[in-house]
Amino acid sequence: MRRLVDARGSFCPGPLTELIKTYRKAEPGDEIELLATDPAAKSDVKAWAQKSGNEVVSIEERGDHVAIIVRVVKK
Amino acid sequence: MRPVRVVIIGGGTGGTILSNRLVKLLKDETRGGKVEIHLFTDSDSHYFQPANIDIAFRGAEPSRFVKSERELLEKEVILHTSGVELVKPDDRTVFYNGSALDYDYLVLSTGSRAQPSAVPGLAEASHNFHTGQEDSRRTWEALRRFERGRILVLVNIPHKCPPSPVEAVLLVEELMRKRGIRDKVEITFATPYPRAYPTHSIAEVVEPIFEERGIGLVTLFNTDYVDLQKKKVYSLEGEELSYDLLITVPPHRGAGVIMASGIGDEEGWIPTDKETLRVKRLDGVYALGDATNIPISKSGVVAHLQAEVAALNVASEIRGTGTICRYNGRINCPLELGDRRAIFVAGTYEKPPARQDPSLIKYLMKRAFSTLYWPMLRGRLDLLFELYLGKPYTTKG
Description:
heterodimer; A: about 80 residues; alpha+beta; Translation Initiation Factor IF3; about 30% helix; globular; B: about 400 residues; alpha/beta; FAD/NAD(P)-binding domain
């Protein structure tokens, strides 16, 4: 299942809040597509994925925002 | 033919400001009996919620921070001190206390509620200051009695007031210093974020203060459960932390009426357009403040500024002017750092919060707000706030 999280315009508390909210509801195998304008989003998501044992599938720059796809591996 | 009826659910900061603002915007219509404004709220007590931190960490007297909702409202607002149990948007009707009321426009300012029970073991094991004055008072009592050991401040998301966890841990540290027992107390701050504050520029201010004051920082810690017997907290990431006194910022959820009415998502957040504040897929319905799913801080200032925007848009719809106001994402949250210093976390949808230097003047501004809050709800300080914060919206005809 692909879950879309639109966190564009969020700097405080920021995209990671939205990602983790969705992660808690997701199942292993799901993918979460996070849209963000916060420049810290890429490094934050990578750090979180590494520590939590989940996988960053892709990071794509789309003009004014970035799209990050995370695959839920561990729950 | 009955008057045009606006129903507002929730008498917190947003709902109160919105009610008063609508009366002013629609002065002729409300006085002439053409428009009715109904506000539903659980009780007549209106709490100044930011003071919970003063109650929990300074032992402030709770009764100083509560007033009668009726006295905060323009006389034209019809106040129902009753919660709404159910909304049926298809029938444009709300149900409360055995009665029903139909509406033309509905504004949902139902807020958020801290829910420690959402994490196994958390409610039983922890103290917090987000579930009201009584629990804030209990937190103060626990801190006052604490003599030695480990204090863990544990952050769960989502929660209202992004600065509140950092404020809590810094005020705990200051309190232990003032009590002369700082050397007997280990203080740790555990957060789901990769740094002490979610916004990078603000974390750059906070983290050196943590280091200087000897506060341990554990990042990327999402609470899985708490074991009350072992006095340990376990994270989804596989870590564990021990405590003697656990102070938490609980995860928050949307209001019961939103869940019961099937308007929100799984956690009760209302799908809302982040600019117009219209609830998606529902005609004549707006939402604001903590209640929405807009990815922005859940805070009083957001509820305040969104109430202005929603009021303008509802008034515009009633008058048929066609003007649409679009909220620009303005935030401006004070963050107290202990030792009489504070900063403000300020930005918009387009502009991230910039780094600031802590100052005494910002601390004094924050402290003054507990007095300014009450006239602000009546709209008596609108000019001051507009000068300070700027217009929180753009307009399209």
